[in-house]
Amino acid sequence: MNLANKITLARIFLVPIIMFFLLINLNLGSLKFEDYSITVNQIVAALIFIIAASTDGLDGYIARKNKIITNLGKLLDPLADKLLVAAVLISLVEMDKLDAWIAIIIISREFAVTGLRQIALLEGTVLAASKWGKWKTGVQITMIIALLLNNFPFAFLDFRFDLIASWAAALITVYSGFDYFVKNKNLISLSK
Which residues of the chain, if any, have pLDDT below 70? Predict the structure, then answer.
């Protein structure tokens, strides 16, 4: 259990804490500025999410830099990412902050690409993250933060950045999934 794997595990352990603050009404109060309002629960959940999301690149960097890449890390890192994003997306749907179809598209794509990665592993190949996959992650995290913070600071400008980010996340998620399957179509034919 090296430092990189401990960081990845910490990201997994933060998931239920984020969900707790999002889904349990603790009545910690709220902050209000003119027409804008946000609960303290949401602020805490957003801060924890930002910390958890920022560890995504950190664990990989530490593992590569110190040459401590392990099979456990290869398994846990994508699992931690998917758990974090899926849990928050489902929570946002429950809170009526995100349309269910967007969450379904994102989560379905993650399952599909994970399946493709499993086929690749069985064939002795590791699928590296594509540039579109990295963009997808960045847009999804941006969308989640905007939704968790009730479109702050764009709410003051009456600009629906959260809605635009949601649509952008859905579109880039579909495209990046399509890109993975097109570039790795040989793996699908091998799996017959």
Answer: 190-192
Is the C-alpha dihedral spanning 55, 58, 62, 63 positive or negative?
Answer: positive
Q: Residue 129 carries which DSSP code?
A: P
The DSSP line for 43-84 is HHHHHHHHHHHHHHHHHHHHHHHTT---HHHHHHHHHHHHHH
- Return the pLDDT at 123: 80
Q: Fill in the DSSP letter of residue 159.
A: -
Residues 56/125, Cβ–Cβ less than 8 Å: no
What is the rounded distance in angstroms from the CA atom of residue 132 to the CA atom of residue 184?
Answer: 14
| pTM to 2 decimal places | 0.89
Residues 87 and 16: their CA atoms lie apart, in Å, by 8
The CA-CA-CA angle for residues 45, 21, 90, to 5°, reads 80
pLDDT of residue 74: 76
Residue 31's pLDDT is 92
Assess contact for 5 and 76: CB atoms under 8 A. Answer: yes
